[in-house]
Write a structure and sequence with these properties.
With 213 residues, this protein is an alpha/beta fold. It folds into two domains: 113 residues, Rossmann fold (3-Layer(aba) Sandwich), CATH 3.40.50.620; 91 residues, putative n-type atp pyrophosphatase, domain 2, CATH 3.90.1490.10. Helix content is 31%, strand content 22%. The protein contains six helices and nine strands; from the N terminus they run βαβαβαβαβαβαβββ. Strands 3-2-1-4-5 form a five-stranded parallel sheet, with helices on both faces. It starts with a strand and ends with a strand.
Length: 213
């Protein structure tokens, strides 16, 4: 079994779900977007999934893509065709665009697509991550209400309540599903150990991100 992982909270939850099922997670598969944008995949912090894979005791497969519509799915399909797996798990929450394309790709490859987080409540998903010990670091922000102070913060019960309050006030998705923020999971129940990180903060007055050394 492989898990499509960007290193963020949703794919990390998907990894843990597969582990709890007792499945043998052999690979974390990460799309490395070489362009400026992607229709389906996260861009910042994805190179750190290699360290996460080591802590999950599985292999890491990085797949380069230009991030062009439809072609990025072909890049993923070509890479997966070389793996001996019977399915792939993803952390898709509400993106029909992503889910349908992954299902279509898996059907072509003769493997199964699993989306365990699909249409899960935003609030319960976030609360579950924090209560189950996922250390979710915010690595990028691009929404009103989210300032540079959020960059590098690890969500706790208290900071999640603050995030929920801001989401209500500024009308953004508390789970970041609309691209309001990006995350990196530095530790959790799916990993044996914790990522050691150094980074720089980039802020333009409106949005910002972390760059990792």
């Amino acid at each position: 079994m492989a898990v499509l992982s960007s290193g963020g909270k949703d794919s990390s939850a998907a990894i843990w779900w597969a582990q709890c099922k007792g499945w043998d997670v052999t690979h974390l598969v990460t799309m490395i977007v070489e362009g400026d944008d992607s229709w389906m995949f996260q861009i910042p912090g994805t190179s750190l999934v290699e360290q996460q894979a080591q802590l999950c005791e599985c292999k890491w497969l990085s797949v380069k893509t230009k991030g062009e519509e439809e072609l990025e799915v072909e890049d993923l399909k070509n890479a997966l065709s070389h793996l001996e797996i019977d399915g792939i798990v993803s952390g898709a929450l509400r993106s029909d665009y992503q889910k349908t394309r992954l299902e279509r790709m898996c059907e072509t490859l003769g493997i199964k697509s699993f989306t365990p987080l699909w249409h899960q409540s935003s609030q319960s998903h976030m609360e579950g991550l924090v209560s189950n010990g996922f250390k979710v670091m915010i690595t990028g922000v691009s929404s009103d209400g989210l300032t540079s102070e959020w960059l590098g913060r690890v969500l706790t019960k208290e900071s999640l309540e603050e995030l929920q309050s801001l989401a209500t006030k500024y009308r953004f998705h508390v789970d970041g599903e609309g691209g309001e923020y990006e995350t990196l999971v530095v530790a959790g129940p799916h990993m044996k150990g914790e990522l050691e990180l150094t980074y720089d903060v980039h802020w333009d007055g409106v949005r910002g991100h972390l760059s990792f050394d």
